[in-house]
Amino acid sequence: MRTPLATTAVVALLASSLLTAPTARAATPGDGIPELTDAHGRVLTLRGWNVEDKANRGANALSAITEKHFRDMSARGFNFARLLVFWDDLEPSRGHYSQAYLRKVERILDWAERYHVKVLLDAHQDVFGPAFGHRGVPAWATRTDGLPFTPHPDDWFAEYFEPAVQRAFTHLYEDADLRRSQAAMWRLLAGRFGGHPAVLGYDLVNEPMGELREGEDLPTAARRIEREQLTPMYNRLAGAVRSRDRDGWLFVEPTPIVGEGVPTGLGRIEDRRVVYAPHFYDTAMEAGADYDPAAGWIEAYERAVTAYPKEYKVPVVVGEWGPLNNSLPNMGRFYRDALASLDRYSSGWAGYVWCYGGGYCAVDAAGRFRTNKEATAAPYAAAVAGAVRAETRDPDAGRYRLSYAAARRGPAVSELSLPPHPRGWRVSVTGAARASARTVAPGRAAVVRIAAAPGAAVTVTAEPGR
Q1: Using an 8 Å Cβ cutoff, are 456 and 429 in contact?
Q2: What is the pLDDT of residues 355-372, one digit of tens each?
Q3: Across the strands, what pairs with 47?
Q4: Fewer CB in 10 Å around end: N or C, the chain?
C-alpha cells in the first residue's frame, strides 16, 4: 500500500469499523513463532529491499533493474531482494509465455547470485492489472461483468474499491479457467527458476484484495476474503509450485488491512515451508503524516500480525515497509521503533524500495542513503548454526552482540553481516569458536564466519574500530 495522499475509501470504511474489530490475543510478540531456516537447518535473517521496474513493459520490461542494484545492496550488507515480476509481461496472451521476459528474470537472478543476495520472486499486482491502468493480472484474465471503474489519479489505492476491480478479484478466485491459468503461471516460474541458487522462494500474490458485500465493514470483508478465497487459492498455488519445486519457501500475504491492526482470517496452508508475509504500512503515514509514537500503531500491528504465525507455526518475513516522507521530525524515532519491532517477531524484511532518487527510494542519485534510511544498515546474524540465546544492539555505541548454542551436528559455521562503518569493525568471540576475521577495514561491508565446536556456547561481539 503506497499512496502519497489519504486513501479516503479506506479511511471512511475503517472509521466505522475499527472500534469494534476483534483484537489478537495478547502475548510477547515473538514467542511461539518459528524461525526461517536454510537447507542445513541454520537460522536465517533476511535484510534487504524490493527491486522493481513498474514503468517499463513488453520489450523494455525489467530494463530499469541493473547489476548495480545488487552490487550496491550487497556492499551495504544486505542479503535479500524481493523481485517484482508481472504476470501481464510473462503471459501477454493466454497460453503464450514470453521467453524474453524469462531470460531477463534469469539474468537478474544471476546478478543476485554473484553478489550473494537471496531473491524472493513476487507475483506483483497493483489495482489488479493493466485493465485498470496498472500492472499485474493480464487484461485477458480480467472480468468485470460490465461494472464501472473510475480512475483516482491522486489516490490510486482508492481504485481497489471500484466495483469493476472488486469483481475482477472475485472472478480470479472463483473461475475455474482463471484458477488453472494462475496455477500454470506458477508451475512455469517454479520449473524455470526453482533450481537457481539465488531463489529463496515465491510470494504467491502481492497485497491481495477482493469484493466487499453489501453491509460488510472493511475488517469483516477482509477476514472473509482471506478465509474463503485466499486460503483455497494459496493451497492451489502451493500444489502448483510443489509440482516443480519441492523446497522453495512459499510466502503468503494477508490483505493490506492487517496494517490497521486487523488480524488475518487466513486459514492453514497445507505445506511444510510456508512464510507469513504481511506488509508494514500505516495509513496515516502513507497519507503524509509524521510518526506519532503515542498512537500505538506499531503495538497494534504487532498484535495483529503475530496471531497467525503463532497459531499455524510459520515464520514471518515482512515483504514491504518504509514511509514515503522519511525526513519528517519523528521519522528517526520511527525507524528505531520499527526496526526494533521487526526484530521481535520476524525473520527478516524487505524495505520499499531500492532505487536511486526521491520518494520511496532507499538511496539518492549518488547512491547515498536518504534521510533516516541509513538505520536499515546494521549488523545482523545472517545465518546461525545453532540456537540463538540472545541478540542485542546498542545503536548509540554501534555495538552488536550475539549469543548462541552451536549445533551438535551438521555444519557449524555461522555468518555475521557487518555493513560499512567509517571506523571499520572489531570482532571478538568467546567460547569454543573462531572468527574468519577479527577486524574489518573502514568503509567496507563484510560477512564474518564463525566456526564453533559442536554444542559450544558462543558469544560474538562486533563494535566499531578505534
Answers
A1: no
A2: 999 999 999 999 999 999
A3: 349
A4: C
